Amino acid sequence: MKVIQLIDSLAVGGAEMMAITIANSLVKYDVESYLCATRSEGNLKLKINSEVNYFFLDRKRTVDISSIIRLKKIIKKNKIDIIHTHSSSYFIATLVKLIYPKVKIVWHDHYGNCEMINSRKVQPIKLFSRFFKEIIAVNNLLKNWSKNTLKFPRVYYLPNYASFNNSKFKTDLKGIEGKRLVCVAGLRPQKDHLNLLKAFKLINYNHKDWTLHLVGNKYDDEYYLSLKKFIHTNGFQDVVFLYHDSIDIENILAQSTIGILSSKSEGLPVSLLEYGLAKLPVVVTDVGECSNVVTNNENGFVVEKENEQFLADKIDFLIKEEKLRKEFSIKFHKHILDNYSEQEIIHRLLKIYNS
Hints:
Strand order of the largest sheet: 3-2-1-4-5-6-7
Mean pLDDT: 95
Helix content: 25-40%
CATH superfamily of the largest domain: Glycogen Phosphorylase B
CATH class of the largest domain: Alpha Beta
């Protein structure tokens, strides 16, 4: 079997990381694996294994004829069976299928703003979905959306999974070892870093030696500027640190003490699974699939979204209770290995490909 993962960019992000992770994994399961970035590259390119055949289209426009023809030639020349297209890259995948009907399309829906799914644009996806063989959803809400809204019959829920591979880059976190809070999430409004910053402000009164580390792509927009303003206004320049475009996540998490997600909307965040692989105790908001991954009070804490006091209380509790941190980290690590392993997810994916 020959499969190409199709993604618009290789900037640091959840869908982009999953496209690469799947491409890397498939090599181990007797699949000839390809990956193609359509619009732009990025630091994540460094995470592509050498066994994966990589292409970059450098697409300049929405309908870029030369890119469509080039992708079709790549697929035809290499006799690729399936285009596994991620997020919005379904558009160019479908245009290729129109001129090369033999190839099959599997669309992977990573839509992260699930709490606003009713405002999602339906018509473009519904129009193009008639050319899809299967749809993969990263959570059950998206699965039901495809079934009920798109009226698409062959939809599968396939959870994300995490996989670490060595990086040449080595980020050194500031602050004191054993007293670092980390949040791995792109600097976008749905991740609600401001909620976490407000919670940290409450925590900082009693825990001056603890630091907060925000790891994620920045976009130099109003949201990013609002975070910078909050940090500056509260004099947090020496206790809150931003890390842009970092890809050595395993190394970063190895230096961290507690993993946090404060999102107001999610699918199934890869970073949460990475926290588990790294044996971190976690505090997460109750959005998307988070409460299905973390069992509250059993292997971590799940709190109400957009409530800095609740978030601060649970972080504060873990800061004070080192024994509980250890207990949570062991249980959560085992849970991730048992339920979100590469082997389990790839076997399910291969069944979808072969259905």
